[in-house]
Amino acid sequence: xxxxxxxxxxLGGRDKVTGxxxxxxxxxxxVLDFGTATQSTTSTGTNGTDSGSIKSHAVAEGIITxxxxxxxxxxxxxxxxxxxxxxxxVAANISTAGHTVAFSYDSNNDATNDATIVFNQGTxxxxxxxxxxxxxxxIGAEAVTANLIGxx
Length: 152
Prior knowledge:
Layout: E1 2-3, E2 15-18, E3 31-33, E4 38-39, E5 43-51, E6 54-60, E7 63-67, H1 83-93, E8 99-105, E9 115-120, E10 126-131, E11 138-140, E12 148-151
Parallel strand pairs: 1-3, 2-10, 3-12, 4-8, 11-12
Antiparallel strand pairs: 5-6, 6-7, 8-9, 9-10
């Protein structure tokens, strides 16, 4: 279990965890303990408060994807060029205390996701980059579920 205290892993200094294991369908995976965390509300498309080129989002099983048009149509790649806009967008639009989302991240701008970033809405929003973790399809309570990031 990885303890993430509110205010310790923020926009300007997010924590990076290497070796984090998601559930594999047989064994429990690792867990991020934010103190208060619940999967954010599912949405097939939300025209949110814009941040730079990020204008809308969708959430499924706690996994958030972003689009650069007001009416969500298709996910764009999140990379170093738009990460600050994405994080500002998430902070503005995932605004219920404890709500948590995760998204795929391309940390070296080669158009291939190579990490997952988890955002938890708190007094000082927490942001954790899970280096090398890809293929996540769900975040939620710890369970033996394939591709699940456990959160509490």
